[in-house]
Design a protein that fits this description.
Structural class: alpha/beta
Largest sheet: 5 strands, parallel
Number of helices: 6
Order of helices and strands: EHEHHEHEHEH
Radius of gyration: 15 Å
Strand order of the largest sheet: 3-2-1-4-5
Distance between the termini: 50 Å
Number of strands: 5
Length: about 140
């Protein structure tokens, strides 16, 4: 197993899944911790990766619902059992569903980042994805 670990939330589809593939293509080998709200969805995503990426040996599925403190705590414990530290944390999980949007796309990102902060190695990278949908949603809120 690689000594560098990258954790990606919301990684079983969309932009998160593309991040998984991009990191697996790097010449500097990473082990990807693919986070998904369900293990089944994560495993389905791993099974669909091209064989050239050596995914079965370089990807672990972690169940993580970023809106659930209990799920975050369980995910941190799972990661601690797999990785001595994280080199990359990608906060990608997000939604566009009314009032839940802000709590998921902001509060949950903060909670996940704070929970995994102790596992981040020196020189590690935190990336948070966003879209114009978030900006449009915030503009629609009353003052």
């Amino acid at each position: 197993m690689s000594s560098k670990f990258a954790l990606i939330t919301g990684a079983n589809r969309g932009l998160g899944f593309e991040c998984v593939k991009t990191i697996l293509r790097q010449t500097d080998p990473y082990h990807v911790l693919l986070c998904s709200r369900s293990v089944a969805a994560g495993e389905k995503a791993v099974a669909s990766l091209p064989s050239s990426l050596s995914a079965p040996s370089r990807v672990s599925v972690i169940e993580l619902d970023v809106t659930s403190p209990a799920s975050i705590t369980a995910a941190v414990a799972s990661v601690k059992s797999l990785a001595p530290s994280l080199s990359v944390l990608v906060n990608n999980a997000g939604i566009l569903e009314g009032e839940q949007t802000l709590s998921t796309n902001f509060d949950a990102v903060l909670a996940v980042t704070q929970a995994f902060m102790p596992l981040l190695a020196d020189g590690s990278c935190i990336t948070t994805t966003s879209s114009s949908c978030g900006t449009r949603f915030l503009a629609s809120l009353p003052p």
